[in-house]
Write a structure and sequence with these properties.
50% helix, mainly alpha, flat
Length: 90
Protein backbone atom coordinates (compact mmCIF):
# COMPACT_ATOMS: atom_id res chain seq x y z
CA UNK A 1 0.00 0.00 0.00
CA UNK A 2 1.53 3.37 -0.97
CA UNK A 3 2.12 6.04 1.63
CA UNK A 4 0.27 9.34 1.45
CA UNK A 5 3.45 10.94 0.10
CA UNK A 6 3.76 8.26 -2.60
CA UNK A 7 0.13 8.83 -3.55
CA UNK A 8 0.95 12.41 -4.51
CA UNK A 9 0.32 14.33 -1.29
CA UNK A 10 3.81 15.12 0.03
CA UNK A 11 2.65 17.88 2.39
CA UNK A 12 0.01 15.76 4.10
CA UNK A 13 1.10 14.03 7.24
CA UNK A 14 -1.21 12.08 9.49
CA UNK A 15 -0.26 10.39 12.70
CA UNK A 16 -2.47 8.34 14.91
CA UNK A 17 -1.93 7.53 18.51
CA UNK A 18 -3.66 5.72 21.31
CA UNK A 19 -3.77 6.88 24.89
CA UNK A 20 -5.38 6.29 28.23
CA UNK A 21 -7.49 9.03 29.78
CA UNK A 22 -8.67 9.31 33.37
CA UNK A 23 -11.11 11.76 34.97
CA UNK A 24 -9.70 15.27 35.47
CA UNK A 25 -9.70 15.03 39.26
CA UNK A 26 -7.76 11.77 39.44
CA UNK A 27 -5.00 12.15 42.07
CA UNK A 28 -1.50 12.63 40.62
CA UNK A 29 -0.26 9.60 42.56
CA UNK A 30 -2.82 7.37 40.83
CA UNK A 31 -2.01 8.88 37.40
CA UNK A 32 1.71 8.33 37.93
CA UNK A 33 1.17 4.76 39.12
CA UNK A 34 -1.00 3.96 36.07
CA UNK A 35 1.51 5.63 33.77
CA UNK A 36 4.38 3.58 35.20
CA UNK A 37 2.44 0.35 34.66
CA UNK A 38 1.57 1.30 31.08
CA UNK A 39 5.15 2.34 30.29
CA UNK A 40 6.43 -0.98 31.65
CA UNK A 41 4.22 -2.81 29.17
CA UNK A 42 4.98 -0.45 26.26
CA UNK A 43 8.71 -0.87 26.85
CA UNK A 44 8.58 -4.66 27.13
CA UNK A 45 10.15 -6.70 24.35
CA UNK A 46 6.96 -8.77 23.91
CA UNK A 47 4.89 -5.64 23.29
CA UNK A 48 7.49 -4.05 21.03
CA UNK A 49 7.72 -7.24 18.97
CA UNK A 50 3.94 -7.45 18.59
CA UNK A 51 3.71 -3.81 17.49
CA UNK A 52 6.61 -4.19 15.08
CA UNK A 53 4.57 -6.82 13.22
CA UNK A 54 1.95 -4.09 12.72
CA UNK A 55 4.56 -1.48 11.71
CA UNK A 56 3.72 0.53 14.82
CA UNK A 57 6.31 2.36 16.88
CA UNK A 58 5.53 2.27 20.61
CA UNK A 59 5.96 5.44 22.61
CA UNK A 60 5.45 5.72 26.33
CA UNK A 61 5.21 9.35 27.30
CA UNK A 62 4.82 10.99 30.65
CA UNK A 63 1.38 12.36 31.53
CA UNK A 64 2.64 15.90 30.80
CA UNK A 65 4.03 14.90 27.38
CA UNK A 66 0.77 13.14 26.52
CA UNK A 67 -1.24 16.22 27.54
CA UNK A 68 0.96 18.33 25.26
CA UNK A 69 0.38 15.91 22.37
CA UNK A 70 -3.38 16.05 22.86
CA UNK A 71 -3.33 19.86 23.02
CA UNK A 72 -1.12 20.08 19.94
CA UNK A 73 -3.47 17.87 17.91
CA UNK A 74 -6.50 19.76 19.22
CA UNK A 75 -4.92 23.08 18.22
CA UNK A 76 -4.06 21.70 14.77
CA UNK A 77 -7.26 19.86 13.93
CA UNK A 78 -9.84 21.77 16.01
CA UNK A 79 -10.23 24.71 13.61
CA UNK A 80 -10.37 22.35 10.63
CA UNK A 81 -13.10 20.26 12.22
CA UNK A 82 -15.03 23.40 13.20
CA UNK A 83 -14.77 24.73 9.64
CA UNK A 84 -16.46 21.60 8.33
CA UNK A 85 -19.48 22.13 10.58
CA UNK A 86 -19.06 18.65 12.01
CA UNK A 87 -20.95 17.93 15.21
CA UNK A 88 -20.56 14.68 17.15
CA UNK A 89 -23.46 12.36 17.70
CA UNK A 90 -24.48 11.43 21.22
Amino acid sequence: MPTVREAGYPALEANEWFGVFVPANTPAEAVNHLNAAIRAVVNSEVFKTALAKLSVDPAGETPREFAQLVKSDFDLWGPIVQATGFTPED
